[in-house]
Every structure is written in C-alpha cells, then in structure tokens.
Amino acid sequence: MAARILFPLFFIFILTTSCSLTGKQMPDAGIPSDKEWRPETQKAYLEYLLGYEAEIKGKWETALIHYSKALEIDPASSHLKVQISNMLIKLGKMREALSRMEELVKTNPDYVPALMSLGELYNSQKRVDDAIKIYEKVLKIDPEKNEAYLFLGVLYASKGDIEKGLNMFEALLKKEPENVMALYYTGSINLENKDYDKAEENFKSIIDINPSFDAAHLNLGIISEIKGDVKNAEEYYKQALHYNPHNLFARERLAQLYVTGRSFDKAIKELEELSRGIPRNIDLHQRLGLLYIQNKQYDKAVSEFRIVIEARPADISPRYYLALVLEELNRYDEAIEHLKKILLLDPKNVNTFLNLALIYSKQNRYTDAARVYEEILSFEKGKPEIYAYLGNTYIQGREYKKAEEVLKDGLKRFKDNDELNFVMAVLFEKTGSFDDMVLHLKYTIELNPKHADALNYLGYSYADKGINLDEALSLIKKALELKPDSGYIIDSLGWVYFKQGKIKDALKTLLRALELVKDDPVLLEHLGDIYEVMGDHNEALKAWNDSLKFHEKEPGVKERVEEKLKKLKLKIPQK
After folding, report:
1. For the CA atoms of the chain, what is the radius of gyration?
2. Phi (first) and psi of residue 26, to 5 degrees
3. DSSP 3-state of 403
4. Whole-angstrom distance between the N-terminal and C-terminal Cα of the chain?
5. Could you give the CA distance from residue 198 to residue 144 in angstroms, rounded to a whole number?
C-alpha cells in the first residue's frame, strides 16, 4: 500500500476586482449595468460594499450582517451566498455554512466559487472523498481552475494514491511551471518515497523561483542530512531560519545537528531560541537542562529541571537529573531531598538508591550509605556490584568484620566477579593479610586483565614493600595506559622510581601526580620522603605538614608522618 502523505490545504477565495470604498481591490460580482441601476440595486450594492470593507478589516460579524442585508434585497445572488458562507466559516459556524453551500450547489450546480467553497468545507470535516468529487467536478466545468489541480493532488496523496496526486501536480506544472506549491508537494512526495535526488531537484527549483520559501530550504537540509552532508544541511537550516525565524522545525533540526556534532554551545543557543518561541514545551526545558549539564552550566541546568518538575511533579527523570546536578554543585542535602522524593514515587529504583548512597559516602556518612545498600539487597540480590559497594562502604567506615561478611556472601554467589575479588583484596590489605591480598588481586587481573585499579594496587603494594620492583613497574605502566590521567596511578609510578633509586624521575613524576590530585595525604607524604632523601629538608617539612592537613582521608598517615617530622627536626640545625 502506498504511504499516506498528509498536507495542509491552502484554500483561496478568488475574487474578481473593481474599485473599492477603501481604495483596495474589490469584487465586481454583482455590479449592475446602467440599465439595472435602480434604487433597490443601489442599496444592495452599498450593503455589499460595506460588507466587503468590514471583511478586509477582519470584522466578520459586521461583514455577515451587511452581506445578509444585501442578500435580502437580491435573494438570487449566488455570489452573496458564497460570501455569507465564507463569513460563517471564519466565524466557526461550519454546520450552517455547509448547509448553505450544499443548498446553493443544488440550485446552481455549475457555480464554481460555490463548489470551491464546498470542497473546502468537506475537507475541513475530513470528508476527503466528497471533497475530491467536488474538485473533480470543478475541473470538468472549468479546466483552467488551477487551484483545483493543487487541492486534488493533495487530497489524492493524503489518501495514499500517490500516482494520482503526482499526476495532478504534473498537470498543473505543465500549465504553470513556476507554481511553487505544486513543486513543493511533488518534492514532499518524492522525499517521503526516498527519491532524494528528485526531491532535491524540486526544492532547488522552488528556491530559484522564490528564494524566501523557507520550507524548501528546510527540506533540502533534511535531504542533506540523510545524505550525510552535515555542512550543507546546516547551511540550509540557517537559510530557512533567515527567511523565517519562526520556523521551529528548522531550528529543532539545527539544534539536533549541533548536539550530534557535540557543538553544545550552538545547540544551546538554538534550543534557547526555540524555548522562547514555545515556552510551554516542557520537553524543551528538559533537553536544555541536559545540554547545560554537558556544558557544565549547572546553575542553568537546575533552573530548567525545576521548571520541568513544577509542570510534571510525578515525573522521575527530571528530578533525578536535578539531583545529579545538585550533587555536582556539592549541594548534597538538596540532592538527597530529591532522591528521597523519587523513592517515594518508585520505592525500588536502584539507580536512585545508588546515587543516594554515593552522596552519603561523599559526606563520610558511611553508616547511612551502608543502610542504603542493605535496603537494595533486601529486594535485589542478583547484582554483584551491590555487594562490592556495600563491602567497600564498610571498609571506608572501618567496619572490617561486616565488610568481610558481605563480601564473602557476594563471592559465594558470584565467585568470578572481578570487582568483588578486588574489594576483598582491599579488605585484606587493610587488615594486614598481604598474601591473601596478592592472591585476590592476581585473580582479579586474571578475570579482567584491564582492571586498572587492580594492576595499580598490586604494583604499588610490591613497591611499598620494596619487592618485585620490575614487575611492579610493569603492572603500574599497564594501569597507566588504561587510566593515563589518574593522579593516584602516577603517584604509584613515582613511588616505584623512588624504590628503584631513580630519585629525579620519582620527583618529576610525583609533582605531575600532585597537579591532578592536590589533597591526598599519601601523595604528599611520598613527596616529603623524596625531598628528605634529596636533602631538601625545608621542602620535606612543607610536604609532610601539608600531608597532615588531609590525614583523615587515610588511616595510619598521621602517625607515620608525625614520626618522620620528629626525626627530621632533629636533623635540622637549631637557630
């Protein structure tokens, strides 16, 4: 079956012209000859002129009154009956207009203006077959009535009879080669039928005739997009907007083009303009919010998501995005509030639970974070990562026994899960079980050779003990290939160099790590160790004192660094 193509119909009232009381052209229908110029006729014509003047000013009620008075004087005037019907249409009185036109066509079946008006009425009521019959009749009466070809082409196409529709447009184009509407509809059919070359030819012909026809530029943009010519597509959409800044679809396509090309600034500009045109379009506000996130314009993102939430309070997604943005802005309490509201709407939304737990961990509220993971496990035991997250949270809270219990439970269910084995290795490191740690780290790497954290952890552990340094260097370099911008892995590399006695390489590497991570107590401790070996006691003193500022992040750092500072002060000559 042929595809159905839906087109808007542009019905035109064709008025012949003469003089006008307002100085504009006006119909000559009903103008009496000198012999017919009687007082009654003069009065009817005056009412007609007054009606026409009111019509062109948009005063349709007034126009209807005057046309009706004229018809009372000249009840046989088909022209007045059509004018009255047209006013009724404009006033939304479709049923009355239809009744009058059907009656007129019965009494005057070959009166083309009445037939054209009746065709419009049938089409407005979706009586497509009736409208087609009317326009076919018009062409039998008057083959030169070009509008009828156009309307018939649209109606045929809307029914899916593409061939008949194209035949009508082609017939019209033979008579009027520069009829842009016939070209436009022909191009639209070719576009829908995926005959892109013909469609492109049609729309380019329109631009040659009328460069300001924005819909032709729009469709040429669509064709260029389909053909993968993004540059041309962008230019066509810009042209469409140049000629018609209110072409919302062209702006939408242009914005989407920029999003796909990751030109977020440009996409935002277009969507902002689009949103001003249709401010109540809530989806636009959500899309803008997401783009603001991509562009790190978090405050603007917050404003957009709040608009969406106000309009759709039961919609989870904008509230979730808002929580993520608030988290990014370190407005943790507000983020928690929105996440909890989501859980009231969807009590088993795992992603929301996970983000809630993550925020609690950032606030060092490890007990609260653990409760969240425990809540997830109460209804979802099929996700190994939840056991890993909960075990890691217990480790952060130094509840090592609880961590061991949950990790063992997880490993019973998912013994070959790389992340669970890795977290278990971390636990063994914290509890001083070096051999067990190494065993689980090696198994993690066996399960996932690209587990950068496990590679780094094992390499660093070897380096810290001063053993297997060549292997440690190899492991850490592999980890760094996977995460080249990780300050922690770069620190591990520097620490290996330090243990190998490559002090200059160690210093250079540690300084690079501290450009990425400025507040880690272990990195700063390592820097102090390097300066101390180099004999730069003042720099060592500064680095270790800086390390103490962040000692709460890593158990054991405070005691170690204070001892190093104590020994260093004994070496520094007293003034």
Report:
1. 40
2. -145, 160
3. helix
4. 99
5. 27
Give the pLDDT confidence score for residue 571 in this predicted structure: 77
Residue the block writes with tokens 């019509």: 55
Kind plus residue range of the DSSP H or E element containing 193: none
- Over range 2-11, report the average pLDDT: 36
Length in residues, the chain:
575
Nearest 5°: the CA angle 418, 424, 429 is: 125
pTM for the model: 0.70
Residue for token digits 């460069």? Answer: 211
Q: Over pLDDT 70: what percentage of the chain? A: 93
Half-sphere exposure of 375 (CA within 13 A, CB side): 17
SS3 18: strand
* DSSP conformational letter for 281: -
Give me the half-sphere count of Cα atoms (radius 13 Å) on the Cβ side of residue 236. Answer: 24
For 66-80, write each residue's pLDDT tens digit: 999 999 998 989 999
Q: Is 326 helix (H, G, I), strand (E, B) or coil?
A: helix
Contacts of 408 by beta carbon, 8 Å cutoff, 6+ apart: none
DSSP for 456-522, please give it.
HHHHHHHHHHT-SHHHHHHHHHHHHHH-TT-HHHHHHHHHHHHHTT-HHHHHHHHHHHHHH-SS-HH
DSSP-derived secondary structure letter, 176: -
In 3D, which of 460, 391, 382 has the Cα closest to residue 419?
391
Residue ranges of alpha helices (H) inside 244-281 are: 248-260, 264-277
Q: Is the dihedral of CA 246, 249, 254, 258 positive or negative?
A: positive
Determine the residue type at 118: L
Domains and CATH numbers, the chain: 1-192 (1.25.40.10), 518-575 (no CATH)
- At residue 11 the predicted structure's pLDDT band, cuts being 50, 70 and 90, is very low
Q: Residue with structure tokens 């954290």? A: 453
- The Cα 49–Cα 62 span in angstroms is 12
More reliable by pLDDT, 277 or 151: 151
What CA–CA distance (Å, rounded) separates 301 from 290? Answer: 7
Token duo for residue 448: 């996932």
d(CA 222, CA 202): 14
CA torsion through residues 392, 396, 402, 403, sign: positive
In DSSP notation, 366-395 reads HHHHHHHHHHHHHH--S-HHHHHHHHHHHH
Contact 356, 323 (CB under 8 A): no
